[in-house]
Amino acid sequence: MAKKRIVVLTGAGVSAESGISTFRDSGGLWEKYDIMEVATPEAWARNQDLVMEFYNQRRKQLYEVEPNAAHYALVKLEEKYDVQIITQNVDDLHERAGSSCVMHLHGELKKVRSSVDESLVYELEGWELRKGDKCAKGSQLRPHIVWFGEPVPMIPAAAELSSTADIYLIIGTSLNVYPAASLVGYVQRGCPVYLIDPAEVNVMHIPGVKVIRERAGKGTAELVDELLKEA
Ligand code: APR
Prior knowledge:
The chain is of the alpha/beta class. Helices cover 30% and strands 19% of the residues. It starts with a strand and ends with a helix.
């Protein structure tokens, strides 16, 4: 029999216990930096050095952290389910833990791309993107990140995937950022939806959601054990 499909939407909270800052918690990144100064196309046009430095620091940190219990629990879930991860995160911790199918909605920190042709994407060697690093067409390379105000090219594929879920898990996201937050709207009626987050998240638009008020490590490991028993 075909395995049931579990689609998992993750946000910064799934990587918090690895030591990566979230964005909107107290002490989060958007308290320390102005989004408009580092994460928009206008910021890039105005001050490439500052934008590159912001992402260089994030990338450097990524080399110093490891996946946590939540990432590993989602790998274990593959023993009995077809697990499809849609992540808002730009880190590679799901992949490093061993998850087979990971879709990045907001780009990937370890990749860079041409600033004139977005199909020219490269793996960056090491953590540092420098002024003068150029694509094959001679333009400055930029972080492979979806900035505020830019389209999210993976959304149609993520919506389609969400509509095929037998079970839907949402882990560690404040659901503040659209269109990612609207993906759960594509889930079929009757599909169980679980949300794991230690804080109160607005779930008004998710009828019947089962909220688990835990940190990702503990909450995901426990839910995965339960789902594996049920399978
Ligand atoms: N386990 C699970 N969840 C946690 C943990 C933890 N240990 N610690 C914090 N959280 C939760 C917070 O309670 C919050 O609900 O993670 C969530 C993080 O929310 P945000 O900081 O808003 O991050 P996210 O939802 O991923 O942001 C979406 O916004 O700026 C951007 O592009 C960026 O992809 C990002 C998008």
